[in-house]
Amino acid sequence: MSERVTSVAVVGREAPLWLAAASVQRALGRTGVRVHAVELPSQLTEVDVYAASPTLAAMHRLLGLDKQLLFKLCRAVPMVGQRFSNWARNAPPYVIAYDDEAPAGELPFTSYWAKAALEGLRVGFEDFSLGSACARLNAVPVVGEDPGPLSASYGYHLDASAYAVLIKQLALRLGVEIAGSSVREVAATGDAIEAINLADGTRLAADLYIDASGQDAVLISRLASAQFESWSQWLPCNRMFAASSPRMAQLPAFSQISAFAGGWIGQFPLQDRTAITAVYDTAVVDDGEIAELSAVITRSAISGDAVLSALRTGRQLSPWIGNCVAIGETAVALDPVGGLPLHLTHACISHLMTLFPATAGEYQEADAYNRAIGSFGANLRDFQAAHYRLNRRFDEPMWDRVRDVSAPAGLQRKIDMFAARTMIPLADEESFDEQSWAALLLGCGVRPQGYDPRVDGIADQVILQKVQQRLRDVASIARQMPGVEQFLALEQPSPALVGG
Fold first, then answer.
1. Which residues contact 210 (CB under 8 A, 6 or more apart)?
2. pLDDT for 393-410, tens place per residue?
3. Model pTM?
4. Which domains are delineated in the chain?
């Protein structure tokens, strides 16, 4: 009988390292699996921020992390969505919010709205989104015991360095062991890692290796079969600028994402400051001018240190090779738009735990992981690429170039089907539901010319009632939700919780 996996080495840095190590330890530590973490030097600075989708809360619950610590220690601010401006000239901003899916069995509300809009309705789709309504009111959708037929969720803006420290402390409390802080050599033959030689002379051998080193791909890039596929034709920005500006007087419940000639600039409110992230194409914008440009676009003073870093988008064609599994940005490197890095890390870890190898040395689970993460990453790429592909910033070289490139097949299918019949053909491993895709495509200017024909089997009066009731429900529920500042006051942890 083959032996089971009893040792796991996780090599990486910051939140992905500790989330992966903590997850394996929490799930399998009691079965005798030992988890060793090799913590590479951090690349985070005091200005960095994580924009996290609501799915992160599920991982926190599994790890036993109280969400109140996020607000106390990571200066977190709840985020109900992201607001996009200037991606099309003379078009109004639009919000992509975290609305929950409609009850099963119902036709998508998009079809009801599309028929009404084609017949003269002048109320935009965004007005039927609870998350968008909360964003306009700077309110936080708090779900009660009975959320009812209409609900929305919220994610977080997190101080990245503080969050990484918090997750590290959690991992160590769970029993993760620190093996070292620098890799001198990866001893590998073909597609198998034999051991990791650390800078202090330690030789660390394990049954399974997890690469959470980000775009450095410290482990998996050493394997013979490793191949990286670039997505720069669809996600054209290659540089990132991070800085801070003063705390906003009134904290918004959303990220602000503003496009400009060379890329986009994001404002991410925290309790003590506003994180600024600029993502751009160096063929259009010089590094020397991005700080001033960011200050002008955000209308805020850039304070403290600013950090520049390279940005590469794409994926490992096989994120699980032999006894090495890549997670997060090691597996799939995305554009920061949409706040997806922690969501990606969470998804990779979830798939790995579902497919954790039954025996050491065989790893039959690798093919299933590679298919799942391949689809998952491509779907996230398509969602991000839609922002660029459907831009209407004409006569600007970067935006013209990315608009003229053929869209990935899956994205083009969604655009065509939505334009034809207000339908989103969702694939396997999708992160965004039909309502999120509809908000994105409508915000980008795609206007449906038809709808699901089953809607015509419903009396016009019934459709009108559904549309009117939804509009009333959104407005009524949003007004009942606490504002950001009120929500933060309610989420302050007790001294005992912080001290523990």
1. 8, 9, 10, 11, 12, 20, 21, 24, 324, 325, 326, 327, 352
2. 999 999 999 999 999 999
3. 0.94
4. 7-77+159-233+314-378 (3.50.50.60), 96-157+382-484 (no CATH), 239-310 (3.30.70)
